[in-house]
Amino acid sequence: MESLIQLRKSLDEKKISVRELTKQYLDRINHYTGNAYVSVTEETAFKNAEIAQKLIDTGNATALTGIPCSVKDNICVAGIKATSGSKMLEDFIPFYDAKVIRDLAAQGYVLTGKTNMDEFAMGNSNRTSVFGNASNPHDVMRVPGGSSGGSAAAVAADLCAYSIGTDTGGSIRQPASHCGVVGLKPTYESISRHGIVAFAGSFDTVGPIAKTSEDCAVIMESLCEGKDFTSKLGRDIKGVKIALIKELFTDSVDTNVKTAVMDKVEFLKSHGAEIIEASMPVLEYAAPAYFVLASAEGASALSKFDGVKYGLKGEGASYDEQLRDSRTRGLGDEVKRRIMLGNFVLSGDNMNDYFRKALAVKQRVIREYNDVFSKADAIISPTSMRTAFSLDEPSDFVKIYSSTLYTVPANLAGLPCVSTPCNISRDFDKQNMPAGLSVTGKKFDEATILQIADFIERGAR
Length: 461
What we know:
The protein is an alpha/beta fold. The chain is built from 15 helices and 13 strands. An 11-stranded mixed beta sheet has the order 1-3-2-6-8-7-12-13-11-9-10, sandwiched between helices. A two-stranded antiparallel sheet has the order 4-5. α2 (18-31) runs antiparallel to α3 (42-57), α5 runs parallel beside α6 (173-179) and α9 crosses α11.
């Protein structure tokens, strides 16, 4: 399938109708019966297609009109299940649209379905989600690591033109890296979180996954009225100052990944970019601080799921028994682990020993980023220390948690960050797996990081 930009041209020139394009994607979804989607919204898609075609025919189309897309299953769409990857919400049907859905609908979007995810977007696994299928919700689902894994897989497999996901600690960028597509975590709160099933509100960020950085820029500009994301696309990068953080190029990074990233750094340097070496010693503590803070917020956000007000109804003679049964059956192991950790760090003296220290680390991360950005326009690093875990590889939670070192710092600081394939020529590693290159920028300067990522992608075509 083509990129969003190419599809826009085909629709506007009437080379294909919205219904025909929608049917092409739905046919692929029905043919490739994988696990990228939790639910396929065929009826909704064709209704959306009719509305979009009228907008095109009357000359009122926008950049996203008639382009089939998917959304992550923690984003509320009225009348369509929003399971958030959990048995706790397997029957939850929102009666309202999230703000991002209202914005997409106003432009004539076409919704192909809701994509698979880790339970409550906790990024709890290298490749799996607790939610399975209607007959057995606890069946394991095989999706690329990071809670927006279904969205990334759907884009990579041409099961939609783009997808809207969420990124709390790397959940857009890691699966984008593992699938060989582009994932953008914009500046925190660039897109409203209204109507998103919350995990950690001070980190959760809504953003796009698409074929190219240009597509991501167009999507962001369509969703953020009055903000510029596209003006620097296609420009050269002569004089752009790019920092390399030494703590993100250690021996823990897979050799093939490091080589692929450095090849692109040399490519940028050969075209006039200025490469600056820098250090952020605080990164040693970024991942532990993130897990303390995010788990604390998650424990609070998930406390409302008691089987009475929300969630799976529990059985028992008393409220306590019903609550225990609801959460025992409704929540997966990793969610329970995070809730216990969150309550632990918020209890008694632990508040000072862990939570407040984690807040201090967060502030130091922001200060060290500011120091780097006083000398550089952007930072380049690997998106992940390795390529995707294989399906038969045993889960190793130490490896899974430590891999977030490369993504959580941007969430702690609320900075924009894009992952683009750094072996886009399909010269993948020995296991034939893609790797991602991460570009982090100053707050609300998505235009610069998209310019750099776009330059890399154009050079690889």
